[in-house]
Amino acid sequence: MIQAILSYEFLQNAFAAGLIIGVIAPLLGVFIVVRRLSLIADALSHVTLAGIAGSLYLSQSVASLALLNPLFLGIAASVAGSVLIERLRSLYKHYEELAIPIILSAGIGFGAIFISLAQGFSNDLFGYLFGSVSAVSREDLLIVAGIAIVVLAFIYFFFKELFVLSFDDEYARASGLPAKWIHFMFMIVTALVIAGSMRIVGILLVSSLMTIPVATAMRVTKSFKQTIVLSIVFGEVSVITGLVTAFYFDLAPGGTIVVTSIFLLLLVISYKKIMVSLKKGAIA
Fold first, then answer.
1. Membrane-crossing residues (predicted)?
2. What separation in angstroms does the CA of 33 have from each of 13, 38, 105?
């Protein structure tokens, strides 16, 4: 496997991008889960699908756009979706959760239209839906690296504000924190991570990498920072194991990564149950 990675550039791109995504997706996912915004990742992933499908349609219809990287329009659609979610949340102040299914439905609708206009599913679109080891270009890797820098800088400079907002939104607003703008920037960063992760994990599965490692870590940690660290560890294990499995068995990496993360979750849950049973037996 190591020899293959050293020999083929596409494997170098895939594993480098995977390692980066294995850090930034669970890192941002911790704040998403704690703030109970998990469904937002699903909504933005479907909006990203519409952007990708639209880009593939344009590349078929307009000769000058044939070489356009679909990732760019996917990122634009994801960011636009995050802005629209925030706009709708402000319009429906007492029913903010309505914004998520509205944008999710819009993403699915536009995605279906562009897929039909682009004459159905193609290998490229299948790769975006479920990830592809061979499709990650050096340009994709550079985009993912740029997104990672933005995410890490945002978390570093606004960690305290995000922490307060995650656990006590009302206190954060009362204390004078610019909660609205921080949440807006958080949504933009989330959109970037979702769009950047789709080459490896796939549009339909990227939200899983942002939530399942966090759910696994929460079963064994006792503090917020521990949850962040273990979420990243579980995310990296899932990505590396998933990519290796996908390479050897010629499978979609998104599926292998998600199945690995679910297996880790079940393993941790079983371990906790066994430890609780042993403690009860010892007390008895």
1. 14-34, 39-59, 65-86, 98-121, 141-159, 228-249, 255-271
2. 29, 6, 22
- Mean pLDDT, each 10-residue run in order, the chain (284 residues): 71 91 94 87 90 87 80 91 89 83 92 82 73 84 94 94 84 78 90 88 87 95 93 96 90 92 95 82 67
Contact 49, 111 (CB under 8 A): yes
How far apart CA 99 and CA 88 sit, in angstroms, is 5
d(CA 144, CA 152): 12
Please give the single-letter amino acid code of residue 200: I
Return d(Cα 239, Cα 200) in angstroms, integer: 9
String of b and e for 132-152 (b: at least 16 CB within 10 Å)? Answer: bbebbbeebbebbeebbeebe
Residue written as token pair 């290796």: 244
Residues 6+ apart with CB under 8 A from 206: 25, 41, 45, 194, 197, 198, 254
Which residues have C-beta within 8 Å of that of residue 100, sequence separation ≥ 6? 39, 40, 42, 43, 85
Domains of the chain: 2-283 (1.10.3470.10)
Q: How many CB atoms lie within 10 A of CB 101?
A: 12
